[in-house]
Write a structure and sequence with these properties.
217 residues; mainly alpha; Arc Repressor Mutant, subunit A; 73% helix
Length: 217
Amino acid sequence: MAPGRGRPPQPGIAQARRAQITEAAYAIFAAQGYEDTTIEEIARAAGLGHGTVYRYFNAKAEILHSVFDYSIERLMTAIELEPLCAPAESLDDLLDRVQRMCKDLPEFLTREPELVKLIMVESTAADDELLLRLRGLADLMVSTLARALADGQAAGWVRASIDPQVYAHTLMSLSVPGLVHVLHERQTRPAELTRFLAVGAALARSALEVRPAEKQL
């Protein structure tokens, strides 16, 4: 059989093309919304033909899933759960770990405020499965913090009267005003988001710290 004509397939070309389309869709979904974006616009933004996009994605919804994964991956570069996984030695140690976990977040969200919109608004409004995945990620973060609080109770530096799961959920919810601020402000400054984190840490300390009367029990 005679060898086929044409350029031989390049290793990794499919992965590279999918990444190229995903990054273009990330920018255009953020700029004008998922519903108002067409495949033609995504192809043009990626510098590809309309038909080429369909070689790598079956539908616009599949591109949205890829954009969601891309967005979450970028977010997790600025949020690191690992510092919360090892046992903390004190409340100061725990709060310091939380702050270290989020130290790059203000700068990152100021640089890419569209990421919050893509994850929390565009993706989840357009696809119920992505909403469930976002809830799963939030649940993971809450359960990680709840476990750290329970360990603190056992060690005696977190108030015994609190419910770790409820308080972890509440403390995580303190980040919502900062995220809403990112969504609505066109020129968000890192210092503003850092202030949100500092206030959250102060409220956490007030809620979790063992009272003098409790230490005597």
